[in-house]
Please model this.
Amino acid sequence: MRFKSLKGIQDILPPETHIWQRIEHISRDIFKKYGYKEIRLPIIEATDVFIRSIGETTDIVEKEMYTFTDKGSRSVTLRPEGTAPFVRAFVEHHLYNEPSPQKYYYLGPMYRYERPQAGRQRQFHQIGVEALGVEDSKLDAEVISMLSTLLKTIGLKDVQLEITSIGCIKCRPDYRAALKEFLRDKLNNFCDDCKRRYDINPLRILDCKVPTCIENRKGAPSVINFLCDDCKKHFEGVQRYLNLLKVPHIINPNLVRGLDYYTRTTFEVKSSSLGAQNAVAAGGRYNKLVEEFDGPPTPGIGFAIGVERVISLVKETPHEHESPDLFLCTLGHEASEKSIVLAEQLRNRGLWVEMNYDESSLRSQMRKADRIHAKNVIVLGEDELKKGKVVMKDMQGKKETKVELDAEEILKVLQKKK
RNA sequence: GUGAGUGUAGCUCAACUGGUUAGAGCAUCUGACUGUGGCUCAGAGGGUCGGGGGUUCGACUCCCCUCACUCACCCCA
Model:
């Protein structure tokens, strides 16, 4: 084969596209009730948009971005996530002047240059929301609750919501220092990856899956104990409201996010039946990000769900194939000309009409009508043209009825049957 | 970037220890006294056996290289 889609970049074909449409529909429906409006953002941005927000030393920026130089010698990047472009647009269009909270959602493809595996491709899709202008923990709980009902409505079972607070710029450095202090003398017992993480992102060590690392990090200080008063209060609020809303969740202080912009609340929805990439949705609060983009101090919180991962968890019952209302069989050139017009007239009146395009036998045309599960068939030949009446056959009941050769009449008969 | 596994028709799979024109089921298209579907029967199209090189009289089968896919590490949605 000469041409193939690129590695990790897949075509999405029917019938799978039906599942996509369903999920998108449910999402829009739920977001609307919470006051979120759709925002459509570019797929490509100045590279700096991502470096500034995601963090220079994160893996995403260091090795996973589709970055290239355009014809005007600008460094541009295919978006690896949605929050950075969103905040850029938020500031660029002064959306902070809208009544707060400002709530937006988006959906579309993201790009990360990684080795594909189960639940991970280079082009993948996210449905994300962002809510800005409110710092109160009620908003955190509302956002998380919305995510929870969204996933439930889509039909996901056996997913766990984990939350934590990673503090703010005031308290996080203290925790980081305490953690490094704790790890310093035992570092030799950790895996090579963890040794590397110690300098780059020591919090990651809390997330390592190697058994010896899990053993060795026992007794490590917990972020939660290092939260400053404000962060502590905020986190308690989140938990209180989540309980009020009856959103099942567990607190996982070892939850680590790969993007630098998060502050305070972070959360992740995991599934055990996904393989190694087990997060279906994740998000958190970002109270300093708008300022990073030279906007006014504006707190924000958001999440993104991985559409492909959600879909792999949805056990779709093989849905009924959709079927045409009518198939037109034609015999002879004149009938063929008549039917292309008739088909168009009926379609304009709202029917799904298929027709025969060549000179094949009636048997073969009937077979075709059956294969595409047409509900009704009309045979149009010389006799019918002469008499001005056609025979319409119900493909399930096998009943044949005579109908005037006229779009309105045909429409009437078909509507009566519905 | 690292490691392991897998590559034969659109799909699922065959082909004895290397042996002649690589097969089947499903799917697609066509036909079965000529204007009526689903079942049955018959037929057709569709493969450079992932690609290249080597060994051999002879390679889908053995060896080397390469590519692709899959899973895992890493990282994340």
